[in-house]
Design goal:
This protein is α+β, with helices and mostly antiparallel strands. The protein has a domain at 41-75 and 120-238. It is built from two helices and ten strands, in the order αβββββββαβββ. Strands 1, 2, 3, 4, 5, 6, 7, 8, 9 and 10 form a ten-stranded mixed beta sheet that branches. The protein is globular, with a radius of gyration of 22 Å.
């Protein structure tokens, strides 16, 4: 068998423990800071104030509950550049790392556009038409940061009090405010409805054993939309108390202030 590496025809020494350790560390860092396209469908808030997911903008069922997989939580940076000629902004670069690791250093601007902070996490729907569906929620807006900051604070408190049920179970709603320059801006509201363990068992509920080989966080196909689910929202984990000033976005429009109907 021929050598993989050669050094002017001389023998190459075996890899020492220090090199292997450094290589393993580099691989782990590279994987942690890379987001691979083509994964779970994206969950997002439209300018209309509606939450959707997937390429077809499947509307999220009102009152549905979504468990956050805390092991998927990441922090980092993203850079969106102007698509030009009326096109939507384009993602030029991003660097992310698990929240168990330090936040990556802010990269240099791309085409004079600075990188902005970004957070992301995966969720699984627990009830309704989309039960079993897994999505990824990526947040980089000012209004979204206000919501996720409250969520992270709630998770922090829960980990200190009851670490066996670390996954927040959320219902989503939104409200809008009028920006003097960019018109109507939608901002998310996260409502913590309860807590679950990593198998999806709710705190205070009788544990349900998963079938052999089934994972708690595994994607399932979306289903046809039905009427809103009955729900009794608790106090929001995070809701904007006063109008915030988000970054400009080409998708905003002029309108009147709107608040969602009760779930």
């Amino acid at each position: 068998m021929s050598d993989i590496a050669k050094n002017n025809g001389s023998n190459v020494p075996s890899l020492d423990a220090d090199y292997i350790k450094r290589l393993m560390s580099g691989i782990a860092e590279s994987r942690a800071s890379t987001v691979i396209a083509g994964g779970k469908p994206f969950f997002r808030l439209l300018k209309s104030g509606k939450f959707v997911f997937g390429q077809t903008n499947e509307e999220v069922q009102q009152g549905s509950k979504w468990a956050v997989n805390i092991m998927s939580m990441q922090h980092g940076w993203s850079c969106w550049v102007d698509g030009g000629h009326g096109k939507a902004n384009e993602l030029a670069g991003q660097v992310m790392a698990p929240m168990t690791a330090p936040k990556p250093a802010r990269p240099d601007p791309i085409e004079d556009t600075p990188f902005k902070e970004q957070r992301s996490f995966e969720m699984k729907c627990l009830n309704g038409d989309d039960a079993g569906t897994e999505v990824q929620y990526t947040i980089n807006s000012v209004g979204g940061f206000r919501a996720i900051d409250g969520l992270l604070a709630a998770i922090y408190d829960q980990l200190a009090k009851s670490p066996g049920y670390p996954c927040p179970v959320l219902c989503f709603s939104s409200e809008t405010y009028i920006h003097k320059k960019y018109g109507e801006i939608a901002v998310p509201i996260f409502q913590v409805m309860g807590w679950a363990d990593m198998n999806g068992n709710l705190q205070g509920a009788e544990p349900v054993a998963l079938p052999v080989g089934e994972k708690a966080f595994e994607a399932a196909p979306a289903r046809k939309r039905k009427a809103a689910l009955d729900a009794a929202p608790q106090q929001p984990a995070a809701a904007p108390a006063e109008p915030v000033q988000p970054a400009p976005t080409a998708q905003t429009h002029i309108g009147q202030r709107r608040r969602p109907a009760p779930l």
